[in-house]
Amino acid sequence: MVPTPTPDDAHASAGASGRGRLSATRLFVDAFGHEPAGTWSAPGRANLIGEHTDYNDGFVLPFAIEHRTHVALGRRDDGVVRVISTFDEHAVELPFAELDAVFPHRRDEIVEWARYPLGVAWALRQRTGATDVAGVDLAFASDVPVGAGLSSSAAIEGATASALNDTWGLGLDPVTLAQVGRTAENEAVGAPTGIMDQMAAMLGETDSAIFLDCRSLDAQVVDLGFADAGLELVVIDTGVKHAHATGGYGERRASCELGASVLGVPALRDVGIDDLPRARRLLDDVTFRRVRHIVTENQRVLDTVRALRERGPASIGDLLVASHASMRDDFEISIPELDTAVDAALTAGALGARMTGGGFGGAAIALVASGRVDAVRDAAATAFAASGFAPPTIFTVTPSTGAHRDT
Ligand code: ADP
Ligand code: MG
Half-sphere exposure of residue 291, counting CA atoms within 13 Å on the CB side? Predict the structure, then answer.
């Protein structure tokens, strides 16, 4: 007997993205009592290679993933912006006029998650001078894992920025919207992150990575061809949360700035492999190793792009492995859980593996032949159990599209 489809089956057949859209719409209707005017979404991202190079004016190679943050938007005519998320049963609302009073110095008055969307509204108005715009209600639902190094923050920023750009008729291009997201994260949230995540969330394309020059913001779409090569990208989320607004991330940035200033360059982007002997003479050991990570990582991004274009995705494994070693030994942003995930994946036959994201927690990625995915999954789970770590969450990601309007 064929069972009668339930509403949940209907949602499932709409796919994860369809479910996210419906969740955002349902939250909107439940919280605000009327239908939204439209829905938008933006993806999280995985960084294939190029870690901590973004704020050094260097190169990165992220791709958008199919996990997305959806926002349902309704207009209001009273100049108020109100936000709610499945993260929090309470809506937060603020008159536009007060955004300028709160951000950046009094941001502590706003509950942390709401600083992301309200910060985007603030940054958009700062950037465009668009003060005479309608108020909005925004309801968010997301399936991007939080704090896993897959950038749920850029997803909520990208969804908000595209929804407001369209609703307010601002006509900003995706790169400008990425910059607005970054301004919100840096100034309204207070997390000193670079531009990579927002660019990936805005510009992502199916089956492709974004090769980004973080100095010029020149972005090239690079074909990944994982499916054609019979490869999968496996994410091993350690479940260990990082916090960007505090701790090691800021210290690494400070080390990079110190290195650049001692070496007399505007940013570490301007230091090449050939300059490393001089850097070793001039810098203390820790700063030198921080610098060496950035310099070699920039080169690995360039090498990866070339390898993808000339030899295909099966040829990049060693570059991923070298990137992880550099982050573990020179930049010192890995943790035992991430090293365990990488080692287990490689032992189980992954072509390459590395931690992804800012470090101190979050996820590792592994490039794996389709037939070995289960072996990698089992190996990681077993290795975590043997080390007494909490079980990791393991799933595959597919390179997907950037922010857009859905309905
Ligand atoms: P990551 O970007 O690696 O997931 P971050 O610390 O940069 O981690 O950003 C996570 C924070 O972003 C969350 O703690 C929350 O404040 C905010 N956030 C992300 N997605 C949502 C969402 N759907 N609703 C509300 N807040 C969100
Ligand atoms: Mg983030």
Answer: 29
Whether residue 197 lies in the annotated active site: yes
Distance 77 CA to ligand 2 centre (A): 32
Quote the ligand 2 centre to 102 CA distance (angstroms): 22
Angstrom distances, CA of residue 64 to CA of 158, 221, 357:
12, 12, 13
Q: Which of 197, 237, 330, 406 is catalytic?
A: 197
Which residue's entry shows tokens 């990582």? 297
* Residue 242 alpha carbon, nearest atom of ligand 1: 6
d(CA 301, CA 192): 22
Measure the CA angle with vertex 51, ends 140 and 155; round to 5°: 10
CATH code where residue 37 lies? 3.30.230.10
- Domain range enclosing 22: 16-224+400-405
Atom of ligand 1 nearest to the CA of 245: 6
Tokens for 118? 């309200």
- Neighbouring CB atoms inside 10 A of 289's CB total 18
The answer, yes or no, to whether any atom of ligand 1 lies below 6 A from the CB of 69, is yes
- 142 with 283, same domain: the answer is no
pLDDT in tens, 60-73: 999 999 999 999 99
Q: Which atom of ligand 1 is nearest to the CA of 150?
A: 3
Residues 271 and 300 in one domain: yes
pLDDT band at 143 (very low <50, low <70, confident <90, very high): very high
Ligand 2 mean position, distance from CA 151 (Å): 4
Q: Are 159 and 290 in a shared domain?
A: no
Residue having the nearest C-alpha atom to atom 27 of ligand 1: 113
